[in-house]
Specification:
Blueprint lengths: L7 H89 L3 H31 L8 E4 H18 L3 E6 L6 E4 L1 H17 L5 E11 L3 E10 L6 H4 L23 H11 L4 E6 L3 E12 L9 H4 L3 E5 L3 H11 L5 E5 L2 H13 L6 E5 L7 H11 L7 E6 L3 H11 L3 E4 L4 H13 L22 H4 L3 E5 L3 H13 L3 E5 L2 H9 L5 E5 L7 H10 L8 E5 L4 H9 L4 E4 L4 H11 L27 H7 L4 H15 L2 H10 L3 H17 L3 H15 L8 H23 L4
Parallel strand pairs: 2-4, 8-9, 8-10, 10-11, 11-12, 13-14, 13-15, 15-16, 16-17
Antiparallel strand pairs: 1-3, 3-7, 4-5, 5-7, 6-7
Helix pairs in contact: 1-2, 1-14, 2-6, 3-4, 4-6, 9-10, 15-16, 20-24, 21-22, 22-23, 23-24
Length: 718
């Protein structure tokens, strides 16, 4: 039996129900879509509100950061201004004081003022690092030069505490790289200063090694190890944070703000590296940092290999670290090195070598050794060894240099060098000893550079007419006192307006100008003075507590010749005024070092005495610096002209800026001033390519300067 056909009405009802379900589903979907769209719109609006809030918060943070920077700059100014009085008056009064206790008290005031200045600088540095305002230099530098600077500034303190300070440079480390030598030295100085502070006896060793290298750059590792009190694990974990100290107790015996290591960490990170420390209480510490430096394109090795090649050298020191370090400094040179741990052992080595027909050419003798010291050892060897086979002697001392020089001269010892020994000092001394050029007094310790006296600049300053402008009477008194001690004729003014009126009368050699003054500030006054007939080139030197580079750029663009930071360091004041005084009274050392066609009173081409003033009287360092300048800058003319031809005036301006500074430090005043003028032109708002005659002047000054430096570097020592 077949099924009956489906009822049409039932079929219609089913379709209607299905359509109704679909309609409801569609309506529900539309409702869901509408709600989703509404939610999405609301979320978009919320995100936009959040974006606006974030933007406003960022603007507020930027404004707060700018306000913070301005506040710190103003605070720095407010603190540095009274510090000028403290440090300056202490210095002046100390010069006149005869009573020892008074001199000691004034010395303490002077030292405390400098300590406070260091704290102010640390706070400002940390703030600038946090705000990413620190600009790192990218210049050619010699690693050995950085170590030499650290040695200069720390050796005396280490020696005063009876500590052995040594430097070890891995032979694989590139000698010339590109980076910021000031910031590298800043980190090392902090590490070494801390090591001296926390080490009562023993030794401190600065090492430079290499972790990795490619064709373009090298990752270097600097470390400072000591035999001091050490650090507990809990304290070690808190290092490198701002305001953290190893000893946080109320009775701590070592001072410090806790800022130094935090600054070191930020600087190392900015230079592509990191920091760290290992330590064990009672067993000493090792602080290290790494930095990635680019290999210098024109690295030149001026090491006098031919002068020392094949020489047999005996290193004698009772300290095993000192023997290892000094031997290591010689390891990259073609010499044969042996060591001895005592004077008696050295005598036996020298006698045995002479009998074997293989005598030593040079003895590196530590002065202070038990039983048989360095001088007694040298005398004993001269009694036992024929004069024809007797080696040259270099006396190495970590004690008083003047005392060592006197004792060495009596014993007929050729050369005295001070610990800590750096590679360049050691090699230069070896060459002098081997070549028979006796100059025990010729090597001026770099440490003397910081103790520059007014006598160093007397000839350049005597009779110079200086106008000092400052609205603070005490500042006027201090600066006037410093200059009158040097033989200058000093006038004063208490506002920029008065300075302009005085400059209008003429007969001034130099103006020292404070910046922040009522009536007319220093910048405006400098601009007005530049407009006066005959004052277009009158040196106007800013004396200011403003230390931000942005301020300095503004000052220079306004016609300021140079900037001296408050508080004033007397040696800096004397050197700066001497450098800008017309005629300079610092004539070139010889006709070959000057432009023979230059009229009398013209800016010197290569002022040797001025360069020696910057370098603490160290003629050997001047020779090395002259060689490095030639190697680093001999292609500058072509390169800078190419930049100008390509309309890259900004880069050309930076090159002139760098050249201006390095030339000035070497006493190449004409090249420095030509470069400075071109730098100012290229930094102007409407800058355009300099005129052809200006570029010819630059090219001529560069060529003559390079030739003068080559001649000086090739001349025999004085």
């Amino acid at each position: 039996m077949s099924s009956s056909p489906e009822d049409p009405s039932l079929r219609i009802q089913q379709l209607e129900k299905r359509l109704e379900r679909e309609r409801r589903a569609r309506e529900e979907a539309e409702n869901i879509a509408e709600r989703a769209t509404r939610d999405l719109y609301e979320r978009i609006q919320e995100l936009e509100r959040i974006r606006v809030q974030l933007s406003e918060a960022k603007e507020q943070a930027d404004r707060a950061n700018q306000a913070k920077s301005a506040f710190l700059a103003n605070m720095s100014h407010e603190i540095r201004t009274p510090l000028t009085a403290i440090i300056g008056l202490a210095y002046l009064t100390m010069r006149r004081a005869d009573e020892p206790r008074l001199r000691k008290s004034l010395s303490d005031i002077h030292e405390s003022g400098n300590h406070l200045l260091g704290l102010v600088s640390d706070i400002l540095d940390l703030s600038k690092l946090e705000a990413d305002k620190i600009v790192l230099d990218d210049v050619d530098l010699a690693i050995d030069g950085v170590l030499e600077r650290v040695s200069t500034m720390t050796a005396a303190r280490a020696q005063a505490q009876g500590l052995e300070l040594a430097f070890s440079l891995d032979p694989r480390v590139p000698r010339q790289v590109r980076g910021d030598p000031v910031r590298l030295a800043q980190i090392l100085l902090n590490y070494v200063s801390n090591a001296i502070k926390f080490t009562e006896r023993g030794e401190i060793t600065v090492r430079v090694g290499i972790e990795e290298q490619d064709a373009e750059s090298a990752l270097l590792r600097f470390s400072v190890s000591d035999t001091g009190i050490g650090i507990s694990p809990d304290d070690l974990s808190r290092l490198f944070r701002p305001f953290e100290q190893v000893d946080g107790s109320d009775t701590r015996s070592h001072g410090g703000s806790g800022l130094g290591l935090a600054i070191c960490r930020r600087l190392a990170e900015r230079m592509g590296g990191s920091v760290g420390a290992t330590s064990e209480p009672g067993r000493g510490s090792v602080f290290w940092f790494t930095t990635r430096l680019r290999i210098a394109r024109r690295a030149v090795d001026f090491s006098p290999r031919r002068d020392i090649e094949g020489r047999r050298i005996l290193v004698v020191d009772d300290n095993p670290t000192a023997r290892t370090v000094i031997s290591g400094l010689l390891s990259s040179f073609p010499v044969h090195v042996e060591t001895a741990a005592s004077g008696a052992e050295a005598v036996a080595h020298v006698v045995a070598a002479e009998k074997a027909g293989r005598p030593f050419h040079v003895l590196l003798l530590d002065w202070r050794m038990p039983e048989l010291d360095g001088i007694a050892t040298a005398r004993r060897i001269r009694e036992l060894v024929p004069q024809s086979s007797c080696p040259a002697v270099l006396l190495i001392t970590a004690h008083g240099r003047e005392e060592a020089l006197g004792a060495a001269a009596e014993a007929g010892i050729e050369v005295v060098i001070s610990k800590p020994v750096t590679e360049s000092t050691l090699i230069d001394s070896l060459v002098r000893a081997i070549s028979g050029r006796e100059s025990p007094l010729g090597e001026q310790a770099l440490g003397d550079a910081r103790a520059a006296r007014v006598d160093d600049f007397a000839d350049s300053l005597r009779g110079r007419r200086v106008l000092v402008v400052d609205d603070v009477p005490m500042n006027l008194e201090i600066i006037r006192g410093l200059l009158e001690v040097a033989g200058c004729t000093v006038e004063t003014a208490d506002s920029g307006l008065e300075a302009v009126e005085r400059a209008r009368k003429g007969e001034l050699d130099v103006i020292l100008m404070d910046i922040q003054m009522p009536v007319m500030d220093g910048v405006t006054a400098a601009q007005e003075i530049r407009r006066l007939p005959g004052c277009e080139r009158l040196p106007v030197i800013a004396v200011t507590a403003n230390v931000l580079e942005s301020d300095h750029r503004h000052y220079r663009a306004s016609g300021i010749s140079e900037i001296i930071a408050k508080p004033i360091e007397p040696a800096t004041l004397y050197a700066t005024v001497a450098r800008h005084a017309p005629g300079g009274a610092r004539a070139p050392l010889s006709a070959s070092a000057a432009d023979p066609a230059a009229p009398s009173g013209h800016i010197p081409l290569f002022d040797v005495e001025a360069a020696l003033g910057f370098l603490g009287g160290n003629r050997d360092l001047l020779v090395r610096s002259a060689r490095m300048f030639v190697a680093s800058n001999e292609h500058d003319v072509e390169q800078i002209l190419a930049l100008i031809a390509a309309a890259d005036l900004k880069t050309a301006s930076r090159r002139f800026h760098r050249l201006k500074g390095s030339a000035a430090m070497l006493g190449c005043r004409r090249l420095s001033e030509v470069s400075a003028a071109l730098e100012r032109d290229l930094k102007a708002a409407d800058a355009k390519a300099p005129a052809d005659h200006r570029l010819r002047d630059f090219s001529e000054a560069m060529g003559q300067t390079l030739e003068a430096l080559r001649q000086h570097a090739a001349a025999p020592p004085h």
